[in-house]
Amino acid sequence: MRCAASCTTRPCRSGERPTRKRAKRWASTSKNGGCPRYAPNCRNTRASTPRSCRTSSSGWIKPSRAFFRRVRAGQKAGYPRFKGRERYDSFTFPQAGQTGVKLQEGGKRVLIYGIGSVKVKLHRPLEGRLKAATVKREGEHGYLVFTCEVEPRPLPSNDQAIGIDLGTNPHFLVTSEGEMVEAPRYYQKTQAKLARAQHSLSRRKRGSSRRKQAQRQVAKLHRKIANQRKDFHHKIARRLVNEYGTIVHEDLNILGLARGRMAKGVLDAGWGRFLQILAYKAEGGW
Questions:
Q1: Cβ neighbours of residue 259 under 8 Å, at least 6 residues apart?
Q2: pLDDT for position 24
Q3: Contact call for residues 217 and 195 (beta carbons, < 8 A)
Q4: Distance between CA atoms of 35 and 28, rounded to whole angstroms?
Q5: Structural contact between residues 90 and 135, judged by C-beta atoms closer than 8 angstroms
Q6: pTM confidence score
């Protein structure tokens, strides 16, 4: 599905100085709102496209406008990096509640503008007012992510308090009551299998169908690791929120720890994502 004209230019490689021709082209870019020579076509396409489907070109326009903003401010600008078609795995309908996306047959199908009516399996019934919808691709799987505006639902009062100390090996966290949760270490357990898949990928010829097949296999392993880690985080966070009214954790310098000797264990544990999940569940989220 193509929602609007895609505008791209050649990026500046590392260490390459922009030529006068490229500098002149970028100077004309600022006058055309972020699209160099494609500006007329981009404007015409957007004019004939419903507002519900005007987000695909924002992947170029936003970095371009940020580039010129940094130039005007006298900061280090840097040319926007070229992003090929394989880097775009989603597009959003910002007005899904009005146009663009519509549920059919009691939630068994969904009508997507420009695509048609497709089957859908809802994870749970939609609540509140529908604001936006994102069509997302993860490998061979496709997802439709709805963003809804709902009223806050405060949790029941609970006077129980607990402190947690996060770790990597052998325990993911230790509570102030002495409970220890073992670290699953999903990445490190799958590392040997992932190394074989990446070695197979490196031996495939670029552009061949066998290389694409190997790429899908590597992506599948990474996706499984991420899903396992996310499932683990959700279950631990939900249990803590249900049992305690106050949860205290240390203020970790996760970025700094991820640059040191413990980098692999820290990134495998996913402390940052776990604390985000814990925070929004404590505020009344799912």
A1: none
A2: 61
A3: no
A4: 9
A5: yes
A6: 0.71
pLDDT (0 to 100) of residue 191: 93
| pLDDT, tens only, 7-52 | 333 444 444 455 556 556 665 555 444 454 444 555 555 555 555 5
Per residue, the 3-state secondary structure of the chain, as one string, reads CCCCCCCCCCCCCCCCCCCHHHHHHHHHHHHCCCCCCCHHHHHHHHHCCCHHHCCCCHHHHHHHHHHHHHHHCCCCCCCCCCCCHHHCCEEEECCCCCCCEEEEHHHCEEEECCCEEEECCCCCCCCCEEEEEEEEEECCEEEEEEEEECCCCCCCCCCCEEEEEECCCCEEEEECCCCEEECCCHHHHHHHHHHHHHHHHHCCCCCCHHHHHHHHHHHHHHHHHHHHHHHHHHHHHHHHHHHCCEEEECCCCHHHHCCCCCHHHHHHHCHHHHHHHHHHHHCCCC
Tell me the C-alpha to C-alpha distance, in Å, between residue 225 and each of 150, 176, 183: 31, 29, 14
Residues 6+ apart with CB under 8 A from 55: 3, 4, 91, 92, 93, 94
- pLDDT of residue 67 exceeding 90: no
Identity of the amino acid at 25: R
pLDDT of the residue at 49: 56
Closest by CA to 59, choosing from 83, 94, 75, 33, is 83
| Per-residue model confidence as pLDDT tens digits over 141-198 | 889 999 988 887 888 888 889 999 998 888 999 999 888 999 999 999 999 999 999 9
Q: How many CA atoms lie within 13 A of 41 on its CB side?
A: 10
What's the start-to-end Cα distance of the chain, in Å? 32
Burial of 114 (0-12, 13-18, 19+ CB in 10 A): middle
